[in-house]
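sorry for the late reply, my laptop died twice this morning and i had to redo everyting from scratch. anyway the thing you sent over, i finally got around to it. pasting the sequence first so we're on the same page, its 301 residues, then the predicted structure underneath. double check i copied it right bc i was rushing
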Amino acid sequence: MARSLTTKSPVSDRMRSIRRVLWGILFLNLAVAAAKYLYGTYSGSASMQADGIHSVFDSAGNVVGLVGIALAARPADEGHPYGHAKFETYASLVIGVLLLLAAFEVGSSAVGKLATQTYTAEVGPLSFAVMIGTLAVNLGVTVYERKQGKLLKSEILAADASHTLSDAMVSIGVIIGLALVSLGFPMADPIMALIVTVAILATAYDVFKHALATLSDHARIPEEDVRKAVMEVSGVQDAHRVRTRGTEGEIYVDLHVLVAPEMTVAAAHDLADEVEQSVRRRFENVVDVLVHVEPDDGHSE
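ok and here's the structure:
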């Protein structure tokens, strides 16, 4: 026999919290992008302009995240009996693609400057003020979004925090480049842009790695940890075939428990309920538990 328990609300508080975080960060990213790109254009700094473009990609990532969360929050239906949570993962993949596009934009611009030996950056106190101010905003956003991503177990917030961190890395590279330009090394501006391109690609790799772990149904909870929770239930003689999958915020579990062969169907039904509750108490992100009850008669593999 098998028992399953699901108590997921159609639009959870978790999804609403993620949406609020993304809206706030979207407006901050737009302001940062405008400041860097406009002043970069005015001063002729390739790295500042590239940094502004990268910040625009950050904003696009926020929009992708909002769309992904809107889809992920939809309740389960006939076509999607397990719900729509993986749309959050798909959105994080899109952010990974945006990171690749940002790396291409930054890198190609830098290569063009080096190939033509066109160094147009003009550095002044305002250049550093703009970059340091926007860097402070990016670092604050990254820390806040990463903290919320861990708290809410959100793949989209984790991916977007990585995206914003890559923007901060770009800004640090730009500041170093501007400092070297002011010391008489104009080539430093596009060279730093190339170094930052590598950092963005590394960030994209990390985003793809986490998203593919979900899409490939990578185990979310160690089997032995689930088994310990199950074995706390009186009447369970053993547990095996423990499997977990899903997103970090919505985990699905199925397992087999062995009970005394003489146990009645009613008693087995109650025991399955206790197993489900034990697993859900131990792991708060579990939204569904499927328990297969088997007689411990020596025939189980």
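Residues 13-43 form the longest helix (31 residues).
thats about all i looked at so far, will dig more tmrw
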